[in-house]
Amino acid sequence: MRKKISAAVIGIGLAAISVLATGGSASSHGYTDSPISRQKLCANGTVTGCGDIQYEPQSVEGPKGFPSGGPADGTICAGGNSRFSQLDDPRGGNWPATRMTAGQSYTFNWRFTASHSTTDFKYYITKNGWNPGQKLTRASLESQPFLTVPYNGQRPPSTLSHSGTIPSGKSGRHVILAVWTIADTSNAFYACSDVQF
């Protein structure tokens, strides 16, 4: 009996050390795959030269409170995380883009690798006339989200979809910024999706 307990304690201890050594955490992680996010494009190999994000598309976590708080302008797509700065590179406005129709309903899809108590999900879109060759800033985005989905502290399942109407009057290239705000930490998760109207 004593050997079994000792082995269990050692196993738990090694698991905890492994999490600490790799910088991992027990917090939630997630990303959007519809419209496909930049981090997912990197993870599935559609876009190369992405650095670490190709191995962990679910980890774009940064301070919550957007737009009054959160990541600094120019670092929004990476959640303010310099490890994932390739997501902030506009690549000359040439990220692969999902085709959409302005004014139409669209189903947004999240994938989660771990669950967490959630405040809400918000979706922002760039203004008409913004420059897709520059890094994303608050001034590039409409001031209010076009879709807010309250989640009241619930934990999402492994996949979650939201339906909403894309703002009318959009044409050309745009970016949709999805923000998943966590209820019981100081962070949120960020996902930028390039779209073409």
Describe the protein.
With 197 residues, the chain is an alpha+beta fold. The chain has a single domain (28-196), classed as Coagulation Factor XIII, Chain A, domain 1, CATH 2.70.50.50. The chain contains 2 helices and 9 strands. Strands 2, 3, 5, 6, 8 and 9 form a 6-stranded mixed β-sheet that branches. Strands 1-4-7 form a 3-stranded antiparallel β-sheet, with no helix packed on it. A hairpin with a 4-residue loop joins strand 8 and strand 9. It is globular and about 35 Å long. Residues 1-27 have low confidence and may be disordered. Keywords: Secreted, Signal. It is found in: Secreted. One of its GO terms (cellular component) is extracellular region.
User: Could you name the CATH homologous superfamily?
Assistant: chitin-binding protein cbp21
Alpha-carbon Rg, integer: 18 Å
Estimate the helix proportion, in percent.
10-25%
Please identify the structural class as seen in this structure: alpha+beta
Quaternary structure = single chain
Percent in strands: 25-35%
User: How confident overall, as mean pLDDT?
Assistant: 88
Overall morphology: globular
At CATH level 2, the architecture is Distorted Sandwich
* CATH fold description: Coagulation Factor XIII, Chain A, domain 1
Biggest sheet, in brief? 6 strands, mixed
Taking pLDDT < 50 over at least 5 consecutive residues as the criterion, the unreliable ranges are: 1-27
Terminal CA distance = 66 Å
Protein name: Chitin-binding domain 3 protein
Subcellular location: Secreted
Pfam family, one: LPMO_10
Keywords: Secreted, Signal
